[in-house]
Each structure stands twice: as C-alpha cells, then as structure tokens.
Amino acid sequence: IPLFRCGNGATRILPNSQLIIPNEDGPPGLGGVWESYFKRNKYLQFLIMDFDIYWEYHSKPCDIIRKCVPILHVYRLTLEDLERMDWKVVYPPVE
Question: At the top level of its lineage, which domain of life is listed (predicted)?
C-alpha cells in the first residue's frame, strides 16, 4: 500500500508494518511538533491506494495518477481525531 503525496511520490507500507511520519515544521532537533501543523491546517489527509497499480503510473504527472489509480481509502484527520486514535492510523480502518 503506498502513501502518496503528489510531487513527493509515495511511501510503501507493507502489511503488518508501521511508518512513523515526523512533522518537519517543528523546532530544529526536536523532530517536529504536529500541533503547529494543525494551527495552519484543518486536517491531515492520507490517500490509500494499491501499490502495484500506483507503480504502473508512478513516473506520470500527478493528474494522470489521480485519474488512473483508484483510491482505496481516504483519511482526513483533525488534531482531535489523531489524539483520540493515540496518533495511530490503521488500515484497514477499525472502529
């Protein structure tokens, strides 16, 4: 499953694995503070898609990727959502 950011590519997350995403906006040496991100943004969005399909189009422009690679799940998470989830985003979603 890739984690895709247009212009930055995708990050492949293998089943039963985890990925820690630091916020790069924080003070130097502290690894970032996500709360500062949410002062400027309402939510953080993750698009989940099939890696094999994504890989067919990975070198194409972003508009082609958006048209040709189906989205399996969309996460739009607020600071409150992430705090409630103990900062863990799980796919497939569980509730």
Answer: Bacteria
More confident residue, 94 or 74: 74
Determine the Cα angle at 87 with ends 83 and 93, to 5°: 105
The answer to whether residue 72 is domain-embedded is yes
Q: Report how far residue 47's alpha carbon sits from residue 83's, in angstroms, rounded to the nearest whole number.
A: 20
- Give the range of the structural domain holding residue 13, as residue numbers without chain letter: 2-84
| 52 CB neighbour count, 10 Å cutoff | 8
In the chain, where do the E strands start and end?
Answer: 2-5, 9-12, 44-49, 71-77
The model's pLDDT over 22-38, given as tens digits with 9 standing for 90+, comes to 766 554 544 457 788 88
Nearest CA to 69 among 83, 52, 53, 58? 53
Is residue 79 situated within a structural domain? Answer: yes
Residues in contact with 75: Cβ distance below 8 Å, sequence separation at least 6, in sequence order = 44, 45, 46, 48, 89, 93
21 part of a folded domain: yes
